[in-house]
């Protein structure tokens, strides 16, 4: 499998980091996890356009992870020659989120339908909400030799939140999203080739005297947390993404060193469009 870090940013705008989004390509299947700021620009850079994405999977409904779902839905609709609703998987609340999103887009939908006579349908999403019934060990998607498993993560008070595990031809990838270490996360990460974790640096955040930034400390994995999870789970490669604060140029080795103190495997501090293979 090929993992492309489409966007590695956080809510804080950065000139070189789009919002959180990760592309996992398993054989001919293209899966996008989260759709942060600029996701379609990065997807284009990775050689893909929205009609060719098989599924969008949301880890949670925080705006930095969902802000460009509207671009995804609109552009897929406008670029597809036939009706091609976007399959979307996410936590409970995703269907209502999509419904409100489509309502927001009503003006644009009206303009395009009036102008393009061959566009005879509205944009749409086929939504599957998780964690309200299916056993977490059952795959939420199993097609074309690809299995996707999901488990609850811990990003409270944002709840529920979901992490994912993709399996294909012996390769394994865990996409954690924003979460503290927890049993669901450990289960997703067990023995994976690639573990993608959003991270923060408490030591740097603590030096910023802004209450709203300090608040992020209690619901994200630190670099140390991610490294310890990777070590416990027997991960091959740990990918640090969504770093808060964004690393100053020249400090990358510091981030990698903190992880290496707790984890012997490979550590990657992701930049946009970085590629890691299983
Ligand atoms: Zn986030
Ligand atoms: Zn979040």
Provide a descriptive summary of the structure in words:
The chain has one domain (2-277): Metallo-beta-lactamase, Chain A (4-Layer Sandwich). It is 28% helix and 30% strand. It has 10 helices and 15 strands. The strands form 2 sheets. Strands 7, 8, 9, 10, 11, 12, 13 and 14 form an 8-stranded mixed sheet that branches. Strand 8 and strand 9 (158-168) form a beta hairpin. Helix 6 (183-189) crosses helix 9 (223-233) and helix 9 (223-233) packs across helix 10. It starts with a strand and ends with a strand. The model has no long low-confidence stretch (mean pLDDT 94). Bound molecules: zinc ion (2 copies). One zinc ion (ZN) is lined by residues 10, 20, 62, 64-65, 178, 198, 242.
Q: Structural class from helices and strands?
A: alpha/beta
Number of strands: 15
What's the architecture in CATH terms?
A: 4-Layer Sandwich
The helicity comes to 25-40%
Q: How many domains?
A: 1
Let me know the CATH homologous superfamily: Ribonuclease Z/Hydroxyacylglutathione hydrolase-like
Ions, cofactors, ligands: which are bound?
zinc ion
How many helical elements? 10
Mean pLDDT: 94
Q: What is the CATH topology assignment?
A: Metallo-beta-lactamase, Chain A
Question: Main β-sheet, in a few words?
Answer: 8 strands, mixed
Low-pLDDT regions: none
- Helix-strand pattern: EEEHEHHEHHEEEEEHEHHEHEHEE
